[in-house]
């Protein structure tokens, strides 16, 4: 008895709405985090400017790479990511970033809050994603770990003991 399958019986995994909708939310929040990180990077002033300026680039790089990972995972599952600016503005859960120059201490608090908001999105969709696709949930775990580390490194700038 042969165990070989025939081509017509082989299909890739396709994301159901229960998977593509939460991944889309993760995507737009990561895109927004990258944009807000760059806004902060350009307009931070004050004590430890250079160090924070460079740390903000790390946040931006992480958010961009993570967003690309999520979008490509969506495509691998035959879902269609939407990273258009109108979509990001209309659907992000991150608070709006204030305009103009901001002190380094204020930027630390602002960007840390946005990182944790993004982590909140990841944690909030995790169980629904894990139910549909544990492989994708593993990606979310890695992103949570990376973002929480970035938040810790940045928020420590303002910590007093």
TrEMBL record:
Residues 23-156 form the Ferritin/DPS domain. The keyword Ion transport does not apply. Keywords: DNA-binding, Oxidoreductase. It is an enzyme of class 1 (oxidoreductase). GO terms for molecular function: DNA binding; ferric iron binding; ferroxidase activity. InterPro entries: DPS_DNA-bd, DPS_DNA-bd_CS, Ferritin-like, Ferritin-like_SF, Ferritin_DPS_dom. Gene3D superfamilies: 1.20.1260.10. Its EC number is 1.16.-.-, 1.16.3.1. It holds the Pfam family Ferritin. Belongs to the Dps family. PANTHER family: DNA PROTECTION DURING STARVATION PROTEIN 1, GENERAL STRESS PROTEIN 20U. This is DNA starvation/stationary phase protection protein. It comes from Mycolicibacterium fortuitum.
């Amino acid at each position: 008895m042969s165990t070989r399958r025939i081509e017509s019986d082989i299909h890739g995994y396709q994301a159901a709405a229960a998977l593509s909708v939460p991944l889309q939310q993760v995507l737009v929040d990561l895109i927004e985090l990258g944009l807000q990180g760059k806004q902060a990077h350009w307009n931070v002033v004050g004590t430890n400017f250079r160090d924070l300026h460079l740390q903000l680039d790390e946040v931006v790089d992480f958010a961009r790479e993570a967003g690309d990972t999520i979008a490509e995972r969506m495509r691998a599952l035959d879902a269609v990511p939407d990273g258009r600016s109108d979509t990001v503005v209309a659907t992000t859960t991150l608070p709006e970033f204030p305009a103009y120059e901001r002190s380094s201490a204020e930027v630390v608090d602002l960007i840390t809050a946005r990182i944790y908001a993004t982590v909140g999105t990841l944690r909030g969709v995790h169980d629904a994603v894990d139910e549909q696709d544990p492989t994708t949930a593993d990606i979310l775990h890695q992103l949570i770990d990376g973002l929480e580390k970035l938040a810790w490194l940045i928020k420590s700038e303002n910590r007093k003991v």
